[in-house]
Amino acid sequence: MILGEKGICRLSLIPVRGKAGDSYEMVTQLLFGDHYEVIEVSNDIKWLRVKILFDGYVGWIDAKQHTTITEEYFEQINHSNYKISLDISSSILHKKNHINVLMGSVLPISTNEMFKMEEQLAFNGESKSLGEKRDFEYLKQIALKYINAPYSWGGKSPFGIDCSGFTQQVFRICGYSLKRDAYQQFEQGASVDKDVLPGDLVFFKNDASKITHVGIAFGEGSIIHASGKVRIDKLDNEGIYNEELRKYTHQLAGIRRILKA
User: Fold this and answer.
1) With contact defined as beta carbons under 8 Å apart, do 73 and 127 qualify?
2) What are phi and psi of 43, to 5 degrees?
3) What is the pLDDT, as a whole number, of residue 205?
4) What is the DSSP string of 193-229?
5) pLDDT digits (tens, 9 = 90+) for 27-45
6) Which residues, including other chains, have CB under 8 Å from residue 146's CB and lie 6 or more apart?
7) Could you say which residues of the chain have pLDDT below 50?
8) pTM higher than 0.85, yes or no?
9) What is the Cα–Cα distance from 248 to 130, expressed in whole angstroms?
10) Which listed CATH number (2.30.30.40, 1.20.1740.10, 3.40.50.450, 3.10.20.30) goes with 6-72?
11) Contact assessment for residue 36 and residue 50, using Cβ atoms and an 8 Å cutoff
């Protein structure tokens, strides 16, 4: 392993941890097709610290799960309008091996006639072009596909996802790039003082005024967010009201607009 080596996720998902070791917390995940750069190697060469190209996030992956790619292919990925998977779970045939891929996975398939396929891949599921931006109605349908997905710190899949992973993945599928954590997403888009629109990102704070939660305004005084599971709750000027618990669970901090009118 060498510093600067380029890699790509060729498994359904790979946990990315805060420190080099299986017992450390998972801070995010790589889904099939996510590519990255190796920026550090552990002393025992069993763990790699990587920087994910999509959002700049940094963490450690098991070296056994690393797939090396060439500089040329790395650059090709950066400049290709690949497809992104829309099925909660589907199967691909990659180099004669069946692999399950999850919603939000990037597929090395392009509509560019000049595109040269470096890998053998067969995929018959539903997908769209990464760069194709969609409106709220489309975003709504994508968000609803995650409904009841269990909350999992650091997760990005329909089988385990956290609040900012949920917003990041939904917007990515719709053609928009968000950072990984809620406090980072709070710095993106345009600030909204009032007149919340469906599709706006709504942020929440703790008692120390730190941004700790994010969800998507869903219209008619509702919000979809990952809290215990991906769910729809009431939203007002105070925050999120959980009817099951009969109390406010999150304190409103601010609103940002990402979707173009």
Assistant:
1) no
2) -60, -35
3) 97
4) -S---TT-EEEEE-TT--EEEEEEEEETTEEEEEESE
5) 999 999 999 999 999 999 9
6) 103, 158, 161, 166, 169, 170, 226, 230
7) 112-116
8) yes
9) 36
10) 2.30.30.40
11) yes
